[in-house]
Here is the input.
Amino acid sequence: MAEVAKSVITDEMHAAIGKEGPPTVLEVEKTNCRMFARAVGHTDAIFFDEAAAKARGYRGIVAPPGFLGTPIFRPGGAAGVPGEMGGRGFSVPYKRVLNGGTDYEYFPDAPDGDVICAGDAITARTKIVSFEETEGSLGPMLITKRETVYTNQHGKIVAKMYGTVIQY
Amino acid sequence: MADEFEITDEMRAQIGVDSEPWTYEVTTTSVRMYARGIGTEDPIHYDVDFAKSQGFRSIVAPLGYLGTPVYLPGQNDPTFGFPRRAGGPRLNIPMKGLLDGGTETEYLDVICAGDVLVETSHLADLKLRDSARGKMLFITNESVYKNKETGQVVAKQRLTSIHY
Amino acid sequence: MAQVHFEDVKEGDEIPQLKKNCSTQQLVLWAAGSGDFYQIHYDKDFAQATGLKGLIVHGALKNAFLGQLLHDWIGEAGQVRRFGCSYRGMDEPNQDILCRGVVTKKYSEGGKHFVELDVWTEKPDGKKTSPGTALVTLPSKN
Here is the structure.
């Protein structure tokens, strides 16, 4: 890894590593499952049709891969979008930001896990996993990795999201 | 051809003929999205606890929002979302242009998140006008929305589209 | 597609490709579906003012395409355990985006049958724009 002229990682940032932030609630409903599935272009009826989903043994319409619910929107307040680009929090001297990528992990097996279905209320908790500084073609960069754990209304783990944000 | 378009007796015969019903769902996420789209900040449309404290079942659908039609690929128009269903009017419209001519909504009850509505519609009027742009066809539809659980009519809508 | 089984698969196999081509309308649908209303995906003037040549496809939408690629391949009895990608290259609307996957490893553990894959999206010239990996379970014929 290339040496960086000056580190932008503060003591406050170091202290935040591994600490869970406040929980966010996301709602999974028929309308938003269908909207996501429609936007991607899915054809499987389990993402649209409740009867088809139940016939395949699911509790209800299934959340398509990558869909973890819609955060509760509050006008005038922080939208509270977890994961992908949310929770950047710290003030760093880089003006530009890139979404470096996202991985989703699912835990569909009972008894501790479950599939995400319409009707679920998902709680998301995010923590910073690491800060990394590097120098590349775009200049000095700060790479922040976060992990978000998603549990449902029954306390079962349903997903984890691993996100990378690049500030430069 | 659009210039030679005329309203026929066959088209007029469809006036008043009810479509098959379709389910429209009112969810917390869709109510909030509609409210957010308008730009209203009234918590009655966002905060379930607040709405209940005001005596409502849940957050209230903003005026104009009558639920989202169940979307099934191949059964709904991919741009406008309306269901293509049996019993609806079949009009061959040669005009390429489309504008929203206006909507009137009559409420008979408050609509809240959690409500499931059943909608039927029928063709109410057809008018053809000449204009500098050529022939303009005004199509008016009337829809009736009933609460699925109670069977009560909760809203009626009259919508006009302009084809030019 | 007929249900694919663990025994049908071997390392190096490519799974059926999924071709996408986003209209600007699809990018608006995605904004509604994802809640990401960033203007670089639907407002050309805005996108160009940020230095982009024009509108670009959301990285997260390409990730979701890879989710569909896997979901459609594994069939009703398979399960997606993990998938994701890095957003390396930009893709634009009205251009083919090809979603592809190749099996890299298969193994059985704890009564379940796992398949690891490299997945990615690529442009018509073959350039990979979103390289990633996936882990799925498949049913066994036994």
